[in-house]
Structures are given as C-alpha cells and as structure tokens.
Amino acid sequence: MSEEKKPKQGQLNIELDENIAQGIYSNLAIINHSQSEFVIDFVTIMPGVPKSKVKSRIVLTPQHAKRLLKALHENVSRFESNHGEIKDHQQPSIPINFGPTGEA
Q1: DSSP bridge pairs for 59
Q2: Could you tell me the strand order of the sheet in which 28-33 lies?
Q3: Residue 75 · residue 6 · CB < 8 Å
C-alpha cells in the first residue's frame, strides 16, 4: 500500500480536478467592484457571433485583488524579460450589454 502524502506544517495541498485543469479560453475580462469585493467575469468573444456568455466568474476581496495584480505584474515582467515585450494591440471598441448593475 502506498502511503498518502500529507502536507508538512505550513504547506498547502491543492487538488486540480481534470475538468478544471483543461482551463477555459477567455479574450475578454470584465471587472466590477463594490466596497467589499472585486468581481472578474471571463468571456470568450468570437468573430461574427453577436452574443457571448460569461464562462467563469471569480470573486475576490480587495486585498486578494491587489495580490493578484502584483502577481500578474511580476509574471508579465518575468515573461517579457525571457520572451520580449508583449505588444498591446488596440482592440476595436465593443459595446457591451451586461444587464443591470448593482452593488453588493
């Protein structure tokens, strides 16, 4: 019998489900916030398709949103130092009808 690995003190054991591991492609992120949370909706927009659905929604505390911003900045900087600058091409303005908005 194999012994089940137990995390050491201070370590976090994270499982990655097969379906989640495949990921979801997104080419648009819509960010809203209230006083207590940030909400990031990930959408896939396809050419010629006038309607798109939110594929994934992440809700973060303001503190976690700031940590995510810092982690993304560090990773983009690392990527660019290895692979060169990421070009930020201007995208055409897309009118978004996102339904009613409100605060939590």
Answers
A1: 39
A2: 28-33, 38-43, 54-60
A3: no
Mean pLDDT of the chain: 87
Q: Number of structural domains, the chain?
A: 1
Distance CA(37)–CA(54), nearest Å, equals 18
Cβ neighbours around 86 below 10 Å, total: 9
**Structural domain boundaries enclosing 35:** 23-83
The answer as to whether 49 is a domain residue is: yes
Angle 26-31-35 from CA coordinates, rounded to 5°? 150
Phi, psi values for residue 102, rounded to 5°: -165, 180
Where residue 10 falls (left for φ over 0; alpha for ψ -120 to 50; beta otherwise) is left
DSSP code of residue 38: E
> Region 91-95: what's the mean pLDDT?
63
Q: Quick check: 15 and 28 in contact, CB under 8 A? A: no
Prediction pTM value: 0.73
Kindly state whether residue 100 falls inside one of the protein's structural domains. Answer: no
